[in-house]
Design a protein that fits this description.
By secondary structure, this protein is mostly helical. It has five helices and no strands. About 40% of the residues lie in helices and about 0% in strands.
Length: about 150
């Protein structure tokens, strides 16, 4: 919408089949996560046009952001580790401490970067704020685009 491009959305049952169709020439474009496509990009089988994050990728610094062509555009993928709502606070604290310790390991961070992923240590409070902020942001997009469930 922001770029004025008219694209046809083709629903797939997962990124793998969609990526296979792009690799096989049955589809022209794919929005994919870096970790799912980095090996194909490095092998020259896929041509990365841009990243959708607000800043360029540390792994692929020569690739522009979509925002460099479409001001204000940003769409990033993130994931996190959660636990059931009633998990005791001491368990949450221990999990958070151990996960953050793992993310301080340079070998793990290098491997994640090699896979096109960026990881960052956080707190349960900060992660909750990220979820709330992202929910609000994408809720606005859904309402502006008048997207309805099918």
């Amino acid at each position: 919408m922001m770029a004025g491009i008219d694209m046809v959305h083709v629903p797939y049952r997962g990124g793998g089949p969609a990526q296979n169709d792009v690799l096989g020439g049955q589809a022209q474009v794919l929005f994919s996560t870096p970790s799912a496509s980095i090996a194909y990009i490095r092998a020259g089988m896929l041509r990365l046009l841009a990243v959708t994050t607000a800043t360029r990728s540390d792994t692929l610094p020569d690739i522009p952001t979509v925002g460099e062509f479409v001001p204000g555009y940003e769409a990033s993928y993130w994931s996190g580790i959660g636990a059931p709502k009633n998990t005791p606070a001491e368990i949450i604290e221990k999990l958070n401490r151990e996960i953050n310790a793992a993310l301080a390991d340079p070998k793990l961070m290098a491997r994640l970067a090699e896979l096109g992923a960026m990881a960052f240590a956080s707190s349960p409070t900060d992660f909750g704020k990220l979820i709330a902020d992202e929910t609000e942001k994408w809720g606005k997009v859904i309402r502006a685009a008048n997207i309805k469930p099918e």
